[in-house]
Amino acid sequence: MGAINPGDTAFVLLSAALVLLMTPGLAFFYGGLVRHQNVLTIIMQSFISMGVVTLLWVLVGFSLAYGGDHGGIIGDLRYAGLQGVGLTPSQLYAPTIPFLAFFLFQVMFAIITPALVTGAFADRVSFKAYLIFLVLWSLLVYIPFVHWVWGGGFLAKMGVVDFAGGIVVHLSAGMAALASVFVVGKRMVRPGEKFAPHNLAYMALGTGLLWFGWFGFNGGSALAANGVAAIAFVNTNVAAAAGMVCWLLIAWLRDGKPSVSGALTGAVAGLATVTPAAGYVPPGAAVLIGVLAGVVCYGAVQFRLRRDWDDALDVWGVHGVGGGLGTILTGVFALTAINGVRGLLAGGTHQFVVQVAGVAIAAAYAFVVTFGILKLVNLITPVRVSAATEQNGLDAELHGEAAYDPLPVPPPARPTTVPQQRAGTRKPVGNLAGDLS
Prior knowledge:
Elements: H1 6-33, H2 39-66, H3 99-117, H4 127-149, H5 154-158, H6 166-184, H7 200-219, H8 227-255, H9 260-274, H10 283-307, H11 315-333, H12 336-339, H13 349-380, H14 387-392, H15 394-399, H16 432-436
Helix pairs in contact: 1-2, 1-3, 1-7, 2-3, 2-4, 3-4, 3-6, 4-6, 4-13, 6-11, 6-13, 7-8, 7-9, 8-9, 8-10, 9-10, 9-11, 10-11, 11-13
């Protein structure tokens, strides 16, 4: 067994904490985008993942992802209940940190990924159905993806690389989001109502927390405090900056005003797109990846709008398209000198081909299986809330709480009367207009 490196261990533990912070960040980001009567519902959908998914990974999830291999598809139960996951390192996965630290880092990814999907079906899915979906989707989509790419499964054997989750996290969530659009259906809308963000300050706070946490998300995926982690940190920041500026300029030219929500969305698109490439490409390529994220993800959102798909918070356009794009671009810009992977521009044609193939396989699987999961859940309990619940707001109807105190109802206005004056009497004192006349 390898010796534990205290610096690497401290770095990975800190990175795990940063990734955990991303889930509350996502809750605020999504919470600001939904209608005010559904804020608590979507925040709860993110936070409950921290509880349910953690327990699921302790019981079987981590073992199925990283315990052995059955036909390149799934692991076994050797680590069920965290048996054998202790203080010594794992030569296979993390040779310089305790195996428990590796588990902790991985469970943070497992928490946020299904929470990403919730943005697509915001405002209209029951909490009971979501809990069932959360467990089934983690078991049937996310955990297999982890094994396929990071746990020695068939995509890894093909040569597919994904530094921090372009396929495993963002593409899987984005394609699941697209499937949910077709199963759950469109939101109800009152005449004249627009689906405008109810609190852009929440969205800005969420973006800040996501950007900050993403340094752990990408940098920590080096699993060591080394040069690869440093370049992943730099690439994370410059891609987010490029995505933000590019989206802002496009929206400004198109709409005539610099949109706050557009700039924030562009930053997240840049972060999602650079995720699979962060530890493989030079900073100049990361800037270009951020620019392409701004252009392509913006175009995907516009395409979605033209198709009238009600992906409420554009999970497919930002995370699905961004994750797939970044995975393919990894096969274009990766340099052997950085992390041993040679992209197309350096003569690595095979790497580019397997990256494209990996995206196609993963996208199809995530869409089809998610579609089936939602259909199955609907047989157990209705996935969509009733029309009355949707109209009245999910917070009050499902959780019996509200994010905001109701506005006070003003007392009914009393009719005002003008005092009648008899001829020859003085005008009432205090009637300024009368005095001046």
